[in-house]
Design goal:
By secondary structure, the chain is of the alpha+beta class. 39% of the residues lie in helices and 20% in strands. It is built from seven helices and twelve strands. A six-stranded mixed β-sheet has the order 1-6-5-4-8-7, with helices on one face. Helix 3 packs across helix 4 and helix 6 packs across helix 7. The longest helix is centred in the middle third of the chain and has 69 residues. The radius of gyration is 45 Å and the shape is rod-shaped. The relative contact order is 0.09.
Length: 342
């Protein structure tokens, strides 16, 4: 984080806002700087000299002393407040300091910086401190304005710009507080939108993975059905002309479960396994398919012939549709296959 140092106190005797005259020696300033610990109590940048519940527009990160001047090194400055300072609305500033005996002093027995107040129409207790200009940050990871130090002598009244009235100060404070609230809301909305986008991206990835898995499973089933049909053709159990129809029936059946009675027990298998059992168990007698009159009823189902099964299942499905009953091809094939168990 980039910090900018600014003068907040000089060696000498100064009149506090309550009229007390308080002297600060070089040793006092050295002690004040040495005792400052932002982890114990981080001094805020404020407007005027408010109570500790007022909004902070920046923070003193560290202090130093050079040539009888106490410097505050400040960071995390609100952009709207920096703009107001740059416009000359807060030409002066004054340090609020815990005295060694002050109740609530983070370092009892020592001076400690309470806050740095930027002033409008109210003159500071310490005269002759150089003006501060808040320069806009050039981007990067720092979301706040950087400090730029102006060496001009603000002790000369002729060089001062018009200071703010009390009403203008109040309006500026309210505007800065509204800006802080708006920035916080915008950040929350941006964070929410980012979380929603991340969730949508994860859902898209899951859906794409599921689609790929389903596609791969379908291709696997098609290959297994084709390999099985090829083995039946090679074994002489299915005619080559019936291969395509058999593969389609097997793909349509998939792994839908089927339960049927086999003697005294109930057997549960997938539809495709039932069809494989039937086709593997009964070899094809090609002479029966010669088409000679009287050899076989043309409407009878040949359970060794995938095309015959598919044809009978299609006819049964159409028959049920005429009766007002809609059934799937799987259910139709299962109905036809029950005849193979008799």
């Amino acid at each position: 984080m980039k910090l900018t140092k600014m003068e907040i106190m000089r060696v000498g005797t100064h009149t506090a806002m309550d009229g007390r005259e308080i002297s600060f020696s070089q040793a006092d300033l050295n002690d004040l700087s040495a005792q400052y610990d932002p982890k114990l109590f981080e001094s805020p940048i404020v407007i005027g000299h408010p109570n500790l519940t007022a909004p902070a527009y920046g923070w003193v990160k560290q202090t130093s002393v050079e040539d009888g001047i106490l410097y505050a090194h400040v960071g995390q400055v609100d952009a709207a407040f920096a703009e107001a300072v740059n416009a000359g609305r807060y030409k002066k500033r004054s340090a609020s300091i815990f005295l060694p005996e002050t109740p609530g002093n983070p370092k009892p027995g020592h001076h400690y910086l309470r806050h740095v107040g930027f002033l409008g129409a109210v003159p500071p207790a310490v005269k002759g401190l150089a003006d501060v200009n808040f320069a806009q940050s050039d981007g990067g990871d720092n979301a706040f304005a950087d400090f730029a130090f102006d060496e001009s002598d603000s002790a000369n009244p002729s060089t001062q710009e018009k200071t703010m009235t009390e009403a203008e100060q109040k309006a500026a404070i309210e505007a800065a507080a509204a800006k802080l609230a708006a920035d916080e809301m915008a950040k929350k909305e941006a964070d929410f939108a980012a979380r929603e986008a991340a969730i949508a991206e994860r859902e898209d990835k899951v859906k794409a993975a599921e689609n790929e898995k389903a596609k791969a499973e379908a291709e696997k089933q098609k290959k297994e059905a084709t390999d099985f049909a090829d083995s039946l053709v090679k074994a002489g159990k299915v005619l080559p002309a019936h291969k395509a129809g058999l593969v389609e029936v097997m793909v349509q059946l998939g792994n839908a479960p089927v339960s049927f009675s086999d003697g005294n027990q109930t057997v549960s298998k997938s539809s495709i396994d039932v069809l494989k059992d039937v086709l593997n168990a009964k070899p094809v007698d090609f002479s029966e398919k010669s088409g000679e009159p009287g050899e076989k009823d043309k409407d009878a189902v040949d359970f060794a012939d995938g095309a015959s099964i598919a044809k009978a299942a299609t006819a049964y499905q159409a028959e049920q549709a005429k009766a007002g009953v809609e059934i799937s091809m799987t259910d139709a094939v299962n109905h036809i296959m029950k005849g193979a168990q008799k």
